[in-house]
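Figure 2 data, in text form.
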Amino acid sequence: MAICAPVFSQQGHPLTGTWSGDWGATSTQRNQVTFVLNWDGKNVTGLVNPGPDSIPITSVFVDPATWTVRIEADTKNKMHISAEGKLEDLGSYHRTIKGTWTQGPTKGDFKITRD
């Protein structure tokens, strides 16, 4: 047990890191997405699709009882994004989040994996 604790503590918060995957309304209509998430000691902060057109994340909610995660952001043209899913493979460095994605009026699903 003493060996497991230091390994987990080196990874930090379970959401910290770069996550990549896709979202879309159908299995053939997909959009690539990247999240960069950081734990500042109090909150999870970050960006969606880092780069010149990055979108700042406005809020992140984590329920550790069920490992449900909700990430929200607003695009530059004021379109609201909400990604809500379940954190899976928590013991793995390459854990995943799968769930529902809403961007403005468009709804679909998403899956991201920590790189």
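Caption note: The helical segments are 4-11.
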